[in-house]
Design brief:
By secondary structure, the chain is an alpha+beta fold. The protein has four helices and four strands; from the N terminus they run ααββββαα. It has a domain at 50-147: Jelly Rolls, CATH 2.60.120.200.
């Protein structure tokens, strides 16, 4: 008689499945309710996002060293996992990092974080630091030709 009142394996499985599905539904609703919600963008505001082909972030593994890299190194530039060294701590050295992919974006912003360190920092023996946005890339001389001949402005791109 005790065996007749005992639920069958099917009934036990259904109860367990219902409990699991109920827990899944509760978890889904909790996750759904805990999100930041829809992002409202007002007129005049831009949504920020990074374009992978124009961005660099740590660790810098493979930057400039493989054929699949989106960046080219020139001169004395050297890539480490936590930083990119453009020049060693000596005068008259040049280094550059160039993006291989042209930028066709209408509106964009450049954010650069840099640190100057070494023996030259004490007396500022460096030869300078420049960021170029040019139509032609990778000039072997290091300085775009229109600037090396006395013109003081970048051409319109």
């Amino acid at each position: 008689m005790a065996a007749a009142s005992r639920p069958s394996w099917w009934q036990r499985w259904r109860r367990r499945a219902w409990a699991r599905d109920g827990a899944k539904l509760l978890l889904f609703l909790l996750l759904l309710g805990s999100g930041p919600g829809p992002r409202h963008v007002r007129a005049g505001q831009a949504v920020e996002y990074l374009k992978r082909e124009h961005s660099l972030s740590k660790p810098y593994q493979g930057v400039g060293t493989s054929s699949s890299s989106l960046w080219n190194l020139m001169g004395n530039a050297m890539v480490m996992t936590q930083y990119i060294r453009l020049t060693p701590d000596m005068q008259s050295k040049q280094g550059a990092l160039w993006n291989r992919v042209p930028c066709f974006l209408k509106d964009w912003e450049l954010q650069v974080h840099f640190k100057i360190h070494g023996q030259g920092k004490k007396n500022l023996h460096g030869d300078g630091l420049a960021i170029w946005y040019t139509k032609d890339r990778m000039q072997p001389a290091g300085i775009p030709l229109h600037l090396s001949h006395g013109e003081q402005r970048l051409p319109q791109l």
